[in-house]
Design brief:
Elements (H helix, E strand, L loop, with lengths): L1 H32 L2 H5 L9 H16 L3 H5 L4 H34 L11 H14 L1 H16 L5 H31 L6 H27 L5
Length: 227
């Protein structure tokens, strides 16, 4: 009888421990990848997407400028400074639009062939939600990237820190970004469980290719226009 009671208590403790671990895991995932409830609340209204496009463009141009910021905006004549600032505003709007649209449209077409739990009735609204998932995916990653860029470009930029910064921004944060996107995409589409891993790899490959294409375009086509 006593052994049965001890066994029952042990089972109860193990269940509580497993429950605590599950809660801890879900909390950690919500912090790193944003809660699923957040993605499900995204609206299909286009007007709330516009600030997000500007934000993405600002992030893209801001990181691309990097160490060249002082060269373009300091020690210039007034006319050159006004020209460069105006050009930057145009770049932010244009690159933000290109980034968001060229991320969402190809994936939107691919995801039409994926099995979902419930048929999507408003396709245009779903496309807007997909764009908003992409915008939101920048929020957790951007501060980390900014911190490591600052370490590399700032006064503390040693060789070791440069290697660490390169590793984090080239390997860790792209994988993290893809995981955020995969969670958001799976939340708004409710794909079959067997497709979730595939969604992650698609998001990773596409954001990587898009990032290289945008980087080439910004550095070789846009920045050469500065005075």
């Amino acid at each position: 009888m006593l052994s049965c009671i001890i066994k029952i208590k042990r089972i109860i403790r193990e269940k509580r421990l497993r429950g605590s671990l599950v809660v801890l895991k879900n909390t950690l995932l919500d912090l790193l990848l944003l809660p699923r409830s957040f993605y499900k609340k995204l609206s299909d209204k286009a007007n709330t997407l516009h600030p997000g496009i500007i934000l993405v463009g600002f992030i893209d141009i801001g990181f691309a400028l990097g160490a060249e910021l002082f060269g373009y905006f300091f020690g210039k004549t007034r006319a050159a400074l006004i020209f460069n600032i105006s050009l930057t505003v145009c770049f932010v709007l244009l690159v933000g639009l290109i980034d968001v649209v060229f991320f969402a449209l190809p994936l939107f077409d691919i995801f039409k062939f994926f099995r979902v739990k419930e048929k999507i009735k408003n396709l245009n609204g779903q496309l807007i939600k997909l764009m908003k998932v992409y915008v939101a995916s920048h929020f957790p990653v951007m501060p980390v990237n900014a911190f490591f860029y600052w370490l590399v470009l700032g006064p503390y930029g040693t060789e070791a820190l440069s290697l660490l910064g390169y590793f984090v921004t080239s390997v860790i944060t792209p994988l993290w970004h893809a995981a955020i996107l995969a969670r958001g995409i799976n939340a708004i589409y409710e794909f079959d469980e067997r497709l979730k891993t595939l969604v992650f790899f698609i998001a990773y490959l596409w954001t990587t290719m898009l990032g290289y294409a945008l980087g080439f375009m910004i550095n070789n086509w846009f920045f050469v226009l500065y005075r």
